[in-house]
Structure formats: structure tokens, C-alpha cells
């Protein structure tokens, strides 16, 4: 997610529906999915077509597949039966027993107890709730009835296993969290209970009231962080105020709210937790929040309640994608839950100080606040000192904050723009777009083409819309103005043909002792088509500096699905100019023996071909209608046709060339000889 690029995408056929979440088999590194309730699909990352993946049709509907790192995948059927994936694949059409009697599964979770997987799921029937605990490998199943609650019902469940005991947490509609303890039965006890077959009623105890200072949290999702902390996503309703969606963390040991964060763009109501990371949908963005739970203490809980308005230490936590106006969020110094946010793919970090003493070095957030109103000179000097600190694990995030502080100053003061400072930071530190999302927007506003070139070449996660905006800006720039800018031309200087005073100057690299003139003298038998279309692409259609900027765009990572809609909006004349340049690069690559252009960060043949295909897909209708594009499309067609013909001829003699190579290995090379081999 750090690059914000899809690494793989698989689709079912039209009319088919994925009916449960896809999981990963940790042992085989395969994906497992179920569509249309009964059809099981298993595939690997390198598989492209889901329709050709392994398929097994089961005899009963699947509710959920759970994958455990050491226990393998476990399949829970809607009828309440459980099978491990291995057992199920041995006979996909095996009969699946009906465990439930008119009940509907509401929640399920899988856990490891020792070497055995344990599956827990809750069901509902006529307003009554039941809990099932099953060990698939031991074929043991226990059913319990949940103690009813007057005028309230469970909204969601979560659980964890500690010391042979299942702790089931239930979020009820009366804004409370209840706890249910279920001891795991041992083998001897299980045999005895099979004879009794009496349904046990589980009693529950109140764990937490979701209210603070008169405000009540209407929870929608609940996850366990550790034995003393839970996270609840919901809507905080205060008297006389509009409800606000919040992510909250509670200390269950001392009944206190540890920290909360408002989510103004709204959520889907779902919260996931995996490997000390929260996952939630905020607006249209997947938000990932890293957290760390420290040992719970009474001092921390009391301190939080005693003086929540005037914390003595400001801890850095950047939530830029959540609240644009907020740079630093202050939390109590003794709080037991520390957060780091990677919000909307924006990696951020913060340090927490435990205890009442003032830290020796102020956190980054506090420093930025202190210098918010400082002069430009003082701000830059202090930021340079901050960057010169000894390397720390969160140095990259610190540099991102420095850039954010500078861009904020630029937006607030249009006359201020530290061009050289920003270029130095980007050139000397490994940054990403998500660390400083406003940097490229400011550079576009200031028309800082060298900085945009650096960002395109270095940032791995630039959104496609920004890439398109840069491309459009580069194509529209005046060539004379570009020559006055300090654009890096290392990617083009070794191969581009430039015109000076109407006289063409070629900077072509001679390969294998053959230059263009020698090749012309020795090879008079060129195909007429080839000589025609090569003449149309002899000189570069753009200047040296614009070509270097366009090469930076070619290097930028993108996803075709997201970039294509933007390219359709590219003005026709700019699209033709860009295609002419791509065609020029394509011809240049084809002239080389290894189809590789010389120079630093020169575009590859694959990048050129991908962008050419993408541009034609986006603009083909427009180009077909424009008279000025007719010759370009015709030349491109002829060149590609000649390339296909050439490689087709090579394929015909591939076998002979391989045999020749084999004979050379067998032949002794001590004596000098001349041999003539006839290729038939």
C-alpha cells in the first residue's frame, strides 16, 4: 500500500458473485475465494486469468474461509459444519452435515490454541443468540446459549483465546460492551459432555460503558488490541450536537477512554485489525493506522481523565488526509496507547514520552508549531538543523514533515518559494508523494520543472492524475523558456538529434564499429518502406529539455485503469506531439542492437511501447479524425509491420542458429579455419 498501486487484479465472469472475503493461504502462498456460494477457486499471484484457476464445486454453501498462519485454511459452511481445506479438497462433493437448526450465522473467528485451530461462531434464531466452539481436527463441537439481555441485542462480536479460555466480547445496542468467558474443553471432558448433551447458558459481565462526559458512542465495530484495550468505531453523540464518527481506544481495565479521533469524511462502519494495524474506510480512502499498546497503569488512566485539556507534552501525529487544518495532535504524556498513522497511504510517525519529565529534545510536531510564525530565514535554518540530526527510524517521516512545513509556508505566502532548498531535499533523501502530497502541487503552481522532473523520477507512488497534470504542463511549455531552466538532460543527451541553426547535429553512439553512414554504404538493400518511415522520424520533434521532462513522465509508475481516463482529456495537438516523440524513441531503440538507449535514466523499450499503446487507446478516435495525424499513424503502422516481419524472419532461422551455436561448442578452436555453413 505504500506505493498505492494495485499489484494484482482478478475478476470473475459476468453474472458470478464473490460471496465471501478472499483469504491467503500462508503455507502455499495461494489465494482462496468462493463465488456463487459453492464454487471454490484457488490461484497464485502469477496467475492472470481467474477462470483458468483451480476450481472445485462444493456440495453446500460456504459462509466464510478463515486462514491461520500455522493451522491452514478452515472452511465454515452456512449450515454450521467446519472442514479444513485439505480435507475438503480430498473430496469436494462430500456430504456436509447440517449443524444448525434454523439459525443464521452472525459472526465467526478462527484462532490457534497450541497446535490446534479453534473456530468460534455466533448464531441467531428468533432473537436468541448461540455460541459454537469447534476444533475441526479433533471433530469436537460445543454449543452454548448466550444469556439474554433485556431491551438490547448484540451488534457485533470479537474474541481472543488466553490460557485455555475463550474471551468473547459483545457490543450491544445499549452502548455497552459485555464479556463472556468460555473455557476450552479438554479431550477427557469432551467425552463426558457428549453423553450429557445439555445446553449450557453463558453468563456475561459488563466490561465497558461507551460514554464519556455525557457523550455516548454508538458503536458499529469492535476489535481487541490486548487484554486491557479495545478499539471501537462508531458515532459519538453529545447532547445538542451533531453525531460525529470517531475511532476510539478504551482501557477496559480502568473503564476509561484513552484516545479518540474524529473521522469527518465518514466510514463504512467496519474496522479491521491485523498485525498491530487498523484498517478502515475513511471517505473514499483506505486508511491504515499503526498502533502500539503499552502496559496499562492507573496513573495513565487517571492522568488522562484529570487533565485532558492541557497535556504537558505534544506528541507528533500527522492526520493531514483527515483534517487539512490540523498538523499536530496533542495527547497526554502518560497515555498507554501510542498511535502511528499511515493515513490514506501517507506514512507518518510519532514518539511518545512516558513519565512527567520534559523531553530533552522536542518532538518534531512541537518544533514545527514553535517556528510557525518565524521568518523565512529562521525557518529554513531550523529545518536544516532538524534534518541534520542523527539518523532515527522515523527520519524519513521527519523529512516529510519538513517538506510539508515548507509547502504550507509557500501556500500561505505566494512570494515565498525556497526552490533550491526543496530540490536539495528531494535529491538527497528518499521521499515519496504520500510523505509530502502538496509538494508537486506547489511545484506545478510555481512552474518548477526541474523539481517536478526529480519527483517523477524518484517518487514511487505519484497519483495518475498528478502524472497527467505534469505531462500536460511539459507539453505546453515554450521551448525557449525551458532552455533557461536547469533541467537535467542526462537521459537524452546521448541519443537525441537536435537542430542548431537549421543544421541537424546527430549525437548518435556508434555501435560495433558501424555508424549510420557506414551502414548505409554497406546495406543498400533496405526495404523501401523502412527508408520511408525512418525519414519521418530522423529528428526529434521536441527540444532537448522538453524531451528530458517527457522521459521523467515515462519513468513514473502508473496503473493503466487510473491513467487512461485522464489521457482522454489531453488536447489533440499535445497528444500528437507526445505520440511523435514516442515514435521517435521507438525508432531510436530499434536502431540499437540491444534495443537500449544510452544515457542515465533513459526510457526502456517497454516503457515506450506501453505509453504508446496507452496514448493510442485514449486518443485513437481523435487521431483518426485529424488530418495532421494521418501521416504519423501511417508511418507508425509501417514501422511496426516491418518490425513484425523482421522478427518473423528471425524466428524462421532460430533453429539453425541454435544448431550453429551447438556446433561451435563442440568444435576445437585451436587451429585456424574458415568454414562455410549453408542455412536451409
Observed structural traits:
nucleus; five-stranded mixed beta sheet; 19 helices; 680 residues; 27% strand; Thrombin, subunit H; alpha+beta; NOL11; Nol11_C; five-stranded antiparallel beta sheet
Explain what the structure shows:
This is NOL11 protein. It comes from Sinosuthora webbiana. It is found in: Nucleus, Nucleolus. InterPro entries: NOL11, Nol11_C, NOL11_N. With 680 residues, the chain is α+β, with helices and mostly antiparallel strands. Among the domains are: 210-293, Beta Barrel (Thrombin, subunit H); 363-443; 447-496 and 539-625, no CATH class. The chain is 32% helix and 27% strand. It contains 19 helices and 28 strands. The protein has a five-stranded mixed sheet with strand order 8-9-10-11-15, with no helix packed on it. A five-stranded antiparallel sheet has the order 17-18-19-20-21. A five-stranded antiparallel sheet has the order 22-23-24-25-26, with no helix packed on it. A hairpin with a 2-residue loop joins β9 and β10 (128-135). α5 (376-387) packs antiparallel against α6 (395-412) and α15 runs parallel beside α17. It is globular, with a radius of gyration of 33 Å. The two termini are 55 Å apart.
Amino acid at each position: 500500500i505504500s506505493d498505492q498501486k494495485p499489484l494484482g487484479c482478478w475478476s470473475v465472469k459476468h453474472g458470478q458473485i464473490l460471496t465471501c472475503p478472499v483469504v491467503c493461504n500462508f503455507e502455499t502462498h495461494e489465494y482462496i475465494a468462493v463465488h456463487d456460494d459453492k464454487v471454490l477457486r484457488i490461484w497464485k499471484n502469477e496467475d492472470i486469468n481467474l477462470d483458468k484457476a483451480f476450481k472445485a464445486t462444493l456440495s453446500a454453501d460456504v459462509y466464510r474461509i478463515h486462514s491461520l498462519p500455522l493451522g491452514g485454511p478452515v472452511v465454515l459452511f452456512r449450515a454450521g459444519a467446519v472442514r479444513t481445506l485439505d480435507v475438503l479438497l480430498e473430496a469436494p462433493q462430500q456430504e456436509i452435515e447440517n449443524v444448525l437448526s434454523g439459525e443464521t450465522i452472525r459472526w465467526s473467528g478462527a484462532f490457534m490454541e497450541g497446535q490446534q485451530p479453534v473456530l468460534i461462531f455466533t448464531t441467531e434464531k428468533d432473537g436468541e443468540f448461540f455460541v459454537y466452539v469447534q476444533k475441526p481436527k479433533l471433530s469436537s463441537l460445543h454449543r452454548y446459549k448466550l444469556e439474554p439481555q433485556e431491551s438490547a441485542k448484540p451488534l457485533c462480536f470479537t474474541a481472543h483465546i488466553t490460557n485455555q479460555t475463550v474471551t468473547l466480547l459483545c457490543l450491544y445496542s445499549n452502548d455497552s460492551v459485555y464479556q463472556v468467558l468460555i473455557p476450552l474443553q479438554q479431550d477427557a471432558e469432551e467425552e463426558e459432555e457428549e453423553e450429557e448433551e445439555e445446553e449450557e447458558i453463558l453468563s456475561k459481565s459488563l466490561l465497558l460503558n461507551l460514554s464519556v462526559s455525557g457523550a455516548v458512542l454508538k458503536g458499529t465495530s469492535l476489535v481487541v488490541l490486548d487484554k486491557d484495550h479495545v478499539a471501537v468505531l462508531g458515532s459519538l453523540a453529545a447532547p445538542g450536537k451533531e453525531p460525529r464518527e470517531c475511532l476510539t481506544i478504551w482501557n477496559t481495565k480502568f473503564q476509561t477512554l484513552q484516545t479518540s479521533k474524529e473521522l469527518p469524511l465518514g466510514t463504512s462502519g467496519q474496522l479491521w485489525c491485523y498485525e498491530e494495524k487498523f484498517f478502515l474506510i475513511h471517505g473514499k480512502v483506505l486508511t491504515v493506522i499503526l498502533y502500539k499498546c503499552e502496559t496499562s497503569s492507573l496513573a495513565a488512566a487517571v492522568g488522562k481523565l484529570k487533565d485532558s485539556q492541557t497535556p504537558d507534552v505534544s506528541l507528533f501525529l500527522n492526520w493531514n488526509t483527515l483534517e487539512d487544518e490540523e498538523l499536530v495532535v496533542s495527547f497526554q504524556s502518560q497515555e498507554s496507547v501510542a498511535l502511528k498513522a499511515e493515513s490514506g497511504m501517507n506514512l507518518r510517525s510519532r514518539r511518545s514520552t512516558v513519565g512527567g519529565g520534559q523531553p530533552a529534545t522536542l518532538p518534531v510536531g512541537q518544533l514545527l508549531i514553535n517556528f510557525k510564525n518565524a521568518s523565512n530565514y529562521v525557518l529554513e535554518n531550523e529545518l536544516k538543523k532538524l534534518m541534520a540530526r542523527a539518523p532515527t527510524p522515523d527520519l524519513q517521516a521527519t523529512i516529510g514533515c519538513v517538506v510539508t512545513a515548507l509547502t504550507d509556508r509557500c501556500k500561505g505566502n505566494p512570494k515565498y518559494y525556497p526552490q533550491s532548498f526543496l530540490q536539495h531535499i528531494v535529491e538527497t533523501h528518499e521521499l515519496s508523494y504520500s510523505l509530502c502530497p502538496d509538494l508537486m502541487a506547489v511545484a506545478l503552481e510555481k512552474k518548477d520543472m526541474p523539481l517536478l522532473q526529480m519527483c517523477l523520477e524518484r517518487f514511487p507512488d505519484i497519483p495518475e492524475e498528478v502524472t497527467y497534470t505534469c505531462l500536460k504542463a511539459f507539453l505546453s511549455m515554450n521551448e525557449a523558456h525551458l532552455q533557461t531552466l536547469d533541467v537535467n538532460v542526462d537521459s537524452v543527451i546521448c541519443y537525441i538529434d537536435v537542430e542548431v541553426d537549421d543544421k541537424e547535429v546527430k549525437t548518435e553512439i556508434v555501435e560495433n564499429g558501424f555508424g549510420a553512414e557506414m551502414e548505409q554504404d554497406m546495406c543498400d538493400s533496405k526495404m523501401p518502406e523502412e527508408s520511408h518511415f525512418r525519414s519521418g522520424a530522423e529528428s526529434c520533434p521536441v527540444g532537448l529539455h522538453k524531451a528530458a521532462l517527457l522521459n521523467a513522465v515515462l519513468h513514473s509508475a502508473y496503473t493503466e485503469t487510473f491513467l487512461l481516463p485522464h489521457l482522454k482529456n489531453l488536447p489533440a495537438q499535445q497528444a500528437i506531439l507526445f505520440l511523435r516523440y514516442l515514435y521517435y524513441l521507438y525508432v531510436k531503440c530499434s536502431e540499437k542492437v540491444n534495443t537500449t538507449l544510452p544515457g542515465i535514466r533513459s526510457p526502456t523499450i517497454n516503457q515506450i511501447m506501453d505509453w504508446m499503446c496507452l496514448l493510442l487507446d485514449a486518443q485513437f478516435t481523435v487521431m483518426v479524425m485529424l488530418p495532421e495525424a494521418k501521416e504519423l499513424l501511417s508511418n507508425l503502422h509501417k514501422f511496426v509491420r516491418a518490425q513484425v516481419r523482421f522478427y518473423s524472419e528471425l524466428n524462421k532461422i532460430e533453429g539453425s542458429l541454435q544448431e550453429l551455436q551447438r556446433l561451435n561448442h563442440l568444435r576445437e578452436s585451436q587451429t585456424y579455419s574458415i568454414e562455410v555453413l549453408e542455412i536451409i
